Amino acid sequence: MRIYRYAVLPMALKVALFFPGMSVNAIAASSCKTIISEDRTEPCNLSNGENLIIDKGVSIDIPQGQLDHSDKYGLKYNAVNVGSGNNKAEVTIVDHIENNGILKGESGVTVTYSGSVEKLLNRGTISGVSGAVWVSGKMNMLDNYSVIKSSNDSISLNSITIHQAIDPINNTQYGRVTTIRNQKEGSIDGISVKKAVLKTLDNYGILFQASKVNLIPATFTIDSGSNVDTFNNYGTVTGPNHAIVINKGGYLKNLNNQSGGKGITADVDAIQVTGQGKAVLDMDAIQVTGQGKAVLDNPQIRPSRIEQITNASTIYGKKKGIYIDDKGVIDRITNKDTGVIKGNIFSIHNKGTITDRIDNAGTIDGNVELGGASLYLSGPKAILKGDVSGTKDSIVTIGSKDSTAENLDLTYTHNMNVGIVNILSGNKLRLGDGHTTGKISNNIDNDGEFYFNHSDKAIYGHNISGTGSVHQVGSGTTIFQGANNYTGATTIQKGTVLQGAEKSFSPVSSYTIGQHGTFDMGGFNTTISALNNSGRVVAGGDNNAVGRMLTITGDYSGNNGTVSLSTVLGDDSSKTDRLVVNGNTSGTTHLVIKNVGGTGAQTNEGIKVVDVQGASGGSFSLAGDYSHKGDPTLVAGAYAYRLYKNSADNSLYLRSSSGNSKPTYQAGVSVYESYGRMLQIMNAPESLRDRTGGRKDRVLGTGEFRSSAAEDSTDDSTSQMPNGVWGRITASYGKLSPRVSTSDANATTYNMVRAQVGMDKRFYENNQGSVTGGAFLQYSKIDANVGSAHGEGNIRANGYTLGATSTWYGKNKFYLDGLAQMTYFDNDLHSKTAGRALGNSKSALGYALGLEAGQEIGLNQKWSMTPQAQLVFSSINMNGFHDPFGAKIRFDRSESLKFRVGTTIDYRQKATHLYGFFNINQEVLGRNDLTNVADVAFISGNDRTWGDGGAGGSYSWDNGKSFVYGQASANTSLNNFADSYELKAKIGIKTTW
């Protein structure tokens, strides 16, 4: 019934009034006793001055009937009525109505425009199909301790409706309620204020809406220009749609959501302020003229509005916490430290106007759309969870200007895009929580402390100004791209701060870099006021550009920090990054130089890398590739650079020259120089005597038999069965002092072991002599120690040789011996000074050819002498490589042609053979080895004239078929006697058949 009147009847009544004879006031009266102690089924219509008490357990239950268009307020079907259906009638005044039972009808209690109730006290149940309590007149107090509800009708209205007079004569005919108080035990199924006035709503209990029908969109609705002064919620407000809606020009002065209850929650929006409309003229504000007439000018169209929302509990909408459409207005929102404003989509969504500000000391959980409003966050408990957006006029302020307010330390992990963010003195804003990154897409005016705390890469592309400090505390990288000019200190505790645009680092800030922090200039020239470095300063960024300058207008202090510069390592004119300190330096700093394409060159004064204008009390040490004699050394190509302090200007230079203006080379050059000479030692073939131990075949003439003299001869050094196998081992120790060396290499000492196995066979024989051929396999190994003023190293080489021999033994005791061999080398080069391998498993291939001739001269039956000569050619091709410093190492082919002349003295008995020998060796080619290190030539060569001598012997058994032999010798340079030498010993065994 009432639903029909609420939406349709006003139009129907206007039609009815147009036709004469149709009555709208013909409502039958039914009087009531003051105390109702028995159930009733007829309405109770109170008269002027009457009061009413309904006893506990008693009901007034009015059956519903057909709609009567003449009954504007449905008085026939209401349980209790105060006032008539005539809006012009005399006012019916009732002091109090007390319900302890049940009031049920289309409405439980109806106060028409001509009715007035001082107090309605409910301790029972009031219900109605179209709402439990309807007020179009006046009510001073509605005090509820129990249940006021709509019926179970699925399209019921809110249980309390304060409404304009039905078919009013003027705009002042509206319902007015001073106070509704829902006590802690009470529950009210929705309240609607439509073109009416409510001064105060105090809710200590439950205010809810049972119906999901959108006819009444909210649990508490202020609609169509209605005015509500204050809503104090100490309990629970909830609903299946919205909780509170201010609509069509509705007005709420104060909304106080107090702590202690469950707050305001809804399945859609908790609070909506939408639309505009004509205002209801509050009677308290009507002006009366001197003639006693009320001024009833039509009010202007106004927006829906809430002046003040104060939240100390929860405001939660599953879609939005607070929503303001483009016509709505909220002057101020204050969220106390116990308050939570939450929405799954938006916590606060302002498409209209927030005239003053949002103050948050509690939790805002969800996205915030500010529009042009300001958001203030203050107090130690303030939390902001969600994206914040706004126009260029919007402001977010961290902290309060109130001197009594506690400071805020806010962690923010979402996205903020507003006009500006202000951080007030004493307050902190932390962007990120150490893992998740927050983002601010606007300028920041910082007078407090601003922290970047994230683990990934984040860009801050706007400007930071103010007197506050900036801190990098997360392990990630923060990239500055704005024109920052804040004057506070910058601290990089850990992670990296990268300059992403020129002048993004504030030039008027002093910087402190922690042990795990990195200050990255990003490849831009940079100026700062001071620097305290315990971490890392990087000038170059990730590119290869060189020539940046870090200028410190004040002092520099190092605390075992690092400064990384890029330099094209070459001569004095080389391009380089540079640290310029206009003030003083102190402390200890490690200088890291990145070589960008420099191939090295000899310097004079050096490359200036640190320019100190003030007192140079700081200590800078170079982070080199290795340390040589305590000095860190940096390698570029063939050159070694060290850091020197120039006493004339206090600045620091990189130099690749020594005090005597000689170049300083890298630690590997002496190893590379000696490489070929060591392989030549391994590749040198031996003489015939070295191979055979002095034993040789005796050739018989055709048809010749041994004579009796031969049978009686004690010489068993010859054999008629020259075919055989043999093996021998040679060990030697040597020292080579180079005759010429670009690197001024010291003497090289080495140990070499050589093992050979072979087989000989007689291929041809006649009465002039015989030809014997053979083949052998050889393994050799050398371990050489190399040194120079530039560093010491080691060469370990392994040689695998295949060789062949052919010898002519003449009947006249002349012999001619030829040899050819090929060797594969597998070599390891190591620098002791640099403490690293220069090259592992580096290969080389060599071959050698030898031709030897000799003539034995018998002195008597036991003694003989054999003059001899030998020519040996040796060639080795060594493969180039890049060393660990990046230098390209190339070797020319190492070649040697040696001529040897000498003689042996032999003593032979039946089973024993002893001998001695002496030789002169001369290098014929006169060529030195050439090594290129990064296109710098290094030449090395040995003395050319050598002499050697030694003695040996053999012992045979089994009629001379088997024998062992040994030899010891010494070889020395004759150009510089005993300066270079080699000591050698060998032992061998041979079996013939």
Give the SSE layout.
Layout: H1 2-7, H2 9-18, E1 35-36, E2 44-46, E3 52-54, E4 59-61, E5 80-82, E6 92-99, E7 102-105, E8 109-111, E9 115-122, E10 125-128, E11 133-135, E12 138-144, E13 147-150, E14 160-163, E15 176-182, E16 187-189, E17 191-194, E18 197-203, E19 206-208, E20 218-223, E21 227-233, E22 236-238, E23 242-247, E24 251-257, E25 263-266, E26 269-274, E27 276-278, E28 301-303, E29 305-311, E30 314-317, E31 320-324, E32 329-335, E33 340-350, E34 353-360, E35 363-369, E36 374-377, E37 383-385, E38 388-389, E39 395-398, E40 409-412, E41 415-417, E42 420-423, E43 428-431, E44 439-440, E45 443-446, E46 449-452, E47 457-460, E48 464-465, E49 469-472, E50 477-480, E51 490-499, E52 510-520, E53 526-528, E54 530-533, E55 536-538, E56 549-552, E57 556-567, E58 578-581, E59 585-595, E60 607-612, E61 619-622, E62 626-628, E63 631-636, E64 639-645, E65 652-655, H3 669-683, H4 688-692, H5 708-711, E66 724-736, E67 740-741, E68 748-765, E69 769-788, E70 791-810, E71 814-831, E72 836-855, E73 857-858, E74 863-878, E75 881-882, ...
Parallel strand pairs: 1-3, 2-5, 3-6, 4-7, 5-8, 6-9, 7-10, 8-11, 9-12, 10-13, 11-14, 12-15, 13-16, 14-17, 15-18, 16-19, 17-20, 18-21, 19-22, 20-23, 21-24, 22-25, 23-26, 24-29, 25-30, 26-31, 29-32, 30-33, 31-33, 32-34, 33-35, 34-36, 35-37, 35-38, 36-39, 38-41, 39-42, 40-43, 41-44, 42-45, ...
Antiparallel strand pairs: 27-28, 60-65, 62-63, 63-64, 64-65, 66-68, 66-83, 67-80, 68-69, 69-70, 70-71, 71-72, 72-74, 73-74, 74-77, 75-76, 76-79, 77-78, 78-81, 79-80, 81-82, 82-83
Organism: Xenorhabdus bovienii str. oregonense
Domain Autotransporter: 718-993
Signal peptide: 1-28
